[in-house]
């Protein structure tokens, strides 16, 4: 019965089945149970609030503990990342220092402009490594009355290519200067043998496909003749603005032994037939760019050679660089670039009149 005041009317049924008079009134007060009191309700409310508050405080403490652990983890990871970053910076600095050092060594090996112009006064070199060091190199030596000039394109670029280029440069000097192998075809054959030997490519256990493509000329100032041999690189020359092309043999130096059964050939030209010649790697022609992002290609380079033929030698180089940069634009340079151009107007006794028998000859020319 709910709490409150109650009044009961009481009558008694007698034996004769009549009710007593008068009606008796009985007042009763029903006290509430404790759980029905305001105090209990207040206490329950306070308990609920306390429970929620305790849960909230506990949650906050848990979150703070989690955040502290996360912050500690972040700090720890940040320290690790910072250390890794500093290590990478040091490694990068060491690598860049090594590349600069290798670049100085490579530049010391390459003929400087004074050495070149001493023997070939009207010569330009457009040399643009993809990275600090290059897999392309040019080489010059003089033996007796003969000037030897080579342009080589080694496998790869950057440091690996530079190592190959220094090997090629050293071997060429040994073969020509020390061993006195003087015919261009024989020089390339010996260069191939030495490269295979140095890189252990004759042993099938070593998978070293590295090698190089080379264009080599020998200018004999006494006989007024130019000898050429090429390993997958051509000789381009001009006479009276007419461009001529002599392809190299379809065989590389070193690398896989495919095509090694083919012999290198020497092609001979009388100097009066040549106003200017060009030796170059494939970096210029393989560069992507232009409005359709295509390769520059050999045909365009040959047309450019014809265009610049009448210009002074250094202006030729500037024009080649300008065209290359305009073609490449914002594309990445994909390979090392090397172009060497030589005008023969001022070399030795070139202006001897040719004999009636003077012709273009060759030694074991490959079709």
Task: Characterise this structure.
By secondary structure, the protein is α+β, with helices and mostly antiparallel strands. The protein folds into 2 domains: 4-31, no CATH class; 113-363, Phosphatase 2c, domain 1 (4-Layer Sandwich). 39% of the residues lie in helices and 25% in strands. The chain contains 6 helices and 16 strands. The chain has helices at 38-109, 113-119, 158-178, 184-198, 298-308, 313-328; strands spanning 4-10, 24-30, 123-128, 136-143, 146-154, 211-220, 225-231, 235-239, 242-246, 253-254, 266-270, 276-280, 288-289, 294-295, 337-343, 361-363. Strands 4, 5, 6, 7, 10, 11 and 16 form a 7-stranded antiparallel beta sheet that branches. Helix 1 (38-109) packs parallel to helix 3 and helix 3 (158-178) crosses helix 4. The longest helix has 72 residues, at 38-109. It is rod-shaped and about 170 Å long. It starts with a strand and ends with a strand. Mean pLDDT is 87; it is low at 349-353 and 355-367.
What does this entry show, briefly?
Helix content is 39%, strand content 25%.
Core attributes:
single chain; 367 residues; alpha+beta; Phosphatase 2c, domain 1; 2 domains; seven-stranded antiparallel beta sheet; five-stranded antiparallel beta sheet; 39% helix; rod-shaped; disordered C terminus
Helical proportion, percent range: 25-40%
Tell me what the CATH architecture of the largest domain is: 4-Layer Sandwich
Question: What do the pLDDT scores average to?
Answer: 87
Order of helices and strands: EEHHEEEHHEEEEEEEEEHHEE
Sheet having the most strands: 7 strands, antiparallel
What name does the CATH topology of the largest domain carry? Phosphatase 2c, domain 1
Q: Give the termini separation.
A: 124 Å
Question: What structural class do you assign from the helix and strand content?
Answer: alpha+beta
| Domain count | 2
Task: Extract low-pLDDT stretches.
Answer: 349-353, 355-367
* Proportion of beta-strand residues: 15-25%
Strand tally is 16
Number of helices: 6
Radius of gyration based on Cα positions: 47 Å
Basic shape = rod-shaped
Question: For the record, what CATH class of the largest domain applies?
Answer: Alpha Beta
The CATH superfamily title of the largest domain: PPM-type phosphatase domain
């Amino acid at each position: 019965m709910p709490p409150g005041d109650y009044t009961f009317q009481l009558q008694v049924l007698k034996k004769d089945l009549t009710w007593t008079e008068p009606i008796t009134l009985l007042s009763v007060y029903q006290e509430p149970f404790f759980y029905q009191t305001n105090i209990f309700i207040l206490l329950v409310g306070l308990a609920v609030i306390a429970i929620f508050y305790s849960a909230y405080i506990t949650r906050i403490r848990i979150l703070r503990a989690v955040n502290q652990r996360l912050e500690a983890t972040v700090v720890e990871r940040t320290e690790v990342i910072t250390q890794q970053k500093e290590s990478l910076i040091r490694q990068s600095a060491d690598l860049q220092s090594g590349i600069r050092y290798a670049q100085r060594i490579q530049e010391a090996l390459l003929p400087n402009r004074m050495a070149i112009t001493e023997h070939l006064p009207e010569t330009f070199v457009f040399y643009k490594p993809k990275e600090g060091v290059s897999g392309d190199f040019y080489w010059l030596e003089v033996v007796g009355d003969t000037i030897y000039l080579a342009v080589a394109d080694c496998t790869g670029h950057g440091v690996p290519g530079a190592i190959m280029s220094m090997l090629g440069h050293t071997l060429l000097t040994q073969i020509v200067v020390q061993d006195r192998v003087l015919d261009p075809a024989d020089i390339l054959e010996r260069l191939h043998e030495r490269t295979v030997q140095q890189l252990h490519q004759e042993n099938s256990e070593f998978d070293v496909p590295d090698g190089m493509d080379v264009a080599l000329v020998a200018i004999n100032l006494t006989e007024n003749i130019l000898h050429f041999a090429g390993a997958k690189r051509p000789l381009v020359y001009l006479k009276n603005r007419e461009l001529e092309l002599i392809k190299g043999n379809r065989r590389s130096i070193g690398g896989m032994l495919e095509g090694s059964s083919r012999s290198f050939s020497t092609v001979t030209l009388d100097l009066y037939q040549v106003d200017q010649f060009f030796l170059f790697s494939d970096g210029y022609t393989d560069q992507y760019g232009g409005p359709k992002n295509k390769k520059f290609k050999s045909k365009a380079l040959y047309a450019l050679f014809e265009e610049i033929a009448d210009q002074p030698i250094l202006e030729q180089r500037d024009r080649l660089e300008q065209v290359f940069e305009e073609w490449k634009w914002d594309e990445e340079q994909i390979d090392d670039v090397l172009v060497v151009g030589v005008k023969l107007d001022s070399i030795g006794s070139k202006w001897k009149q040719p004999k009636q028998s003077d012709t273009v000859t060759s030694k074991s020319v490959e079709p």
